[in-house]
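User: Could you write out the 3D structure of this protein bound to tryptophan? I've included everything you need below.
Assistant: Certainly. Input first, then the structure.
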Amino acid sequence: MQRIFSGIQPSGIPTLGNYLGAIRNWVALQADHDCIWCVVDLHAITVWQDPESLRRATREMTAVLLACGIDPEAHIVFPQSAVRAHAQLAWIFNCIARLGWLTRMTQFKDKAGKDRENASAGLYVYPNLMAADIHAYHATRVPVGDDQRQHLELANDIAQKFNHDYGVDFFPAIEPLILGPAARVMSLRDGTRKMSKSDPSDQSRINLNDDPDTIALKIRRAKTDPEPLPADAAGLEGRPEARNLLGIYAALAGTDHAGVLRDFAGGGFGRFKEALAALLIEKLSPISAETRRWLDDEAAIDAVLRDGAARAATIADPIVREAERLVGFLRL
Ligand code: AMP
Ligand code: TRP
């Protein structure tokens, strides 16, 4: 069976983008893979995190994963900082990756913004740590949203250069799994920007713990254009907001853009938005209820994470130890 690895940052309440672009696909993949799901707190601190908030967000993200159907017994759920192998292999990869490769990463440019001199060094080498996350387990399939495609290409470049430099065939190639009509959910305020938990405007996103009234209001206020919904998917060209809302509906209803348009073509956004809000509330309410149930029992969450970390380390430690031997470190 192929091993799957994926990670998600504990940097706030997960959004509908995280759910449709990542978590929901993870749950489905559990049926026929060995899966390792990592709450990536080491990645989170590449930008400032208040310590107490980081602890809370790590538990919250874990609670959401469990509420969505991630199975911590058949698979592994753990916080990245609890398995030392990630940081150890990341250092080796810092010495494999070239500055030129990192400079091309669009996420760094987005996150560092205008004041690049003031970004943390960690933010710059973020993709090397992400490569280490995956390669420490010899994972070969990595489900992510479309925004992470470039990082996975870099992870493959790192593996190839390591194998080439040390004359080995040690790190396998990884295959990105970018799934579904909502692989990139966009902001509700601007259809050209991705929906993000770090967007300053809460109106730009649906949080997985939003209550039904909030969801309905955010959808009603979501930006659209004045045209009615088009007859077919080709008519979504140049209409990013319409495409995004239809994509969200399609993903939740298990269809595609064309499937949604069969019911809504030619209509105005009013009726469509009402149906979309109802569908969102139907799908998200059970998740937020189950999340709250987990969060009432922090000890249970911590027990899941502790057990996951111990099992993750038994896989990653020998692989990273072998990488260290290949590099030429003494094995004392
Ligand atoms: P992050 O929140 O950046 O840690 O992302 C965790 C996972 O959610 C990754 O697989 C991302 O690709 C995915 N993701 C984040 N935002 C979106 C979005 N707006 N649309 C689709 N997938 C997303
Ligand atoms: N960088 C990813 C994101 O922001 C999260 C992540 C960290 C990840 N390590 C990973 C995803 C390893 C897949 C595999 O979405």
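The chain has two domains: 3-184+298-327, 202-293.
User: Perfect, thank you.
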